[in-house]
Amino acid sequence: MSEFELDGRIARDSDLIATLDLCQLRIQNDSRWPWLVMVPQRADMTEIFELSEADHALLSAEVNHVAAALKEITCATKINVGALGNIVRQLHVHVIARFEGDANWPGPIWGYGSAEPYDSEKRQALVNTLMEKLSR
Amino acid sequence: MSEFELDGRIARDSDLIATLDLCQLRIQNDSRWPWLVMVPQRADMTEIFELSEADHALLSAEVNHVAAALKEITCATKINVGALGNIVRQLHVHVIARFEGDANWPGPIWGYGSAEPYDSEKRQALVNTLMEKLSR
User: Fold this and answer.
1) Which sequence spans correspond to the domains of chain A?
2) Could you give the CA distance from residue B7 to residue B18 in angstroms, rounded to a whole number?
3) How many CB pairs under 8 A join A and B?
4) What residues of A are in the B interface, CB distance below 8 Å?
5) Which of A96, A108, A130, B36 pairs as cysteine with A80 (C-beta 3.0–4.6 A)?
6) Which one is the CATH code of B8-135: 3.40.50.720, 3.40.605.10, 3.20.20.10, 3.30.428.10?
7) Which ipTM was obtained for this model?
8) What gap in Å lies between CA A91 and CA A63, rounded to an integer?
9) CA-to-CA distance for B82 and A92, rounded, in angstroms?
């Protein structure tokens, strides 16, 4: 069995903010939306249903926990959760805070326009608030 | 506690094909993609993390089962799973079979173009094959 290795495009487009039991929790380098990416640290996974039952339960619990925290800290109108993988095949789950009137509301964020860089202080504040909420 | 009632837009845009333990399993009236919609039959739910722990486990298992079956019967390049809800707030999960070169590949299907009606025989064949696979 090969070892988990993060896809290079995910590595380039997002930064690691925490390592959970199963997933790398990462923040997308795009200030248009609070946008998290969760990557199960298992090799050769493409579809959620390829995970073992135990890993699938862990992924569901971790995504739920992160989504609830993201909603609470951002007061988002709606959380969008998606596992697409049409471009990057390594299994990853997007968790995004959406707001009425945001850059592509109410359409999906994937494939829309170009990433906009974060002000590093704002990004750090978001990460700190999220990590505080997750640790409670 | 109010009773579950299907959102009128989901009712209009998709047809019921099976009632699972938790979800209505529905097929979207759009022949561009084999596109299923799963609606937990629980009142007043908007986000996945609002479900009880038991319901959440059921939803995860049902989505997994359906996604795996859809991939197998369609030989899709990739299954897309998403819970957005920016327009219709009633909690629902999309499970879509995607193919290289399909109508909006590799972009997301949501908000893209207009639905195209099914040839009713083709639609029925897809539903029959899916139901057979799910019942095994």
Assistant:
1) 8-135
2) 17
3) 97
4) 46-49, 56-57, 60, 63-65, 67-68, 71, 77-87, 89, 98, 105-108, 110-111
5) A96
6) 3.30.428.10
7) 0.96
8) 13
9) 12
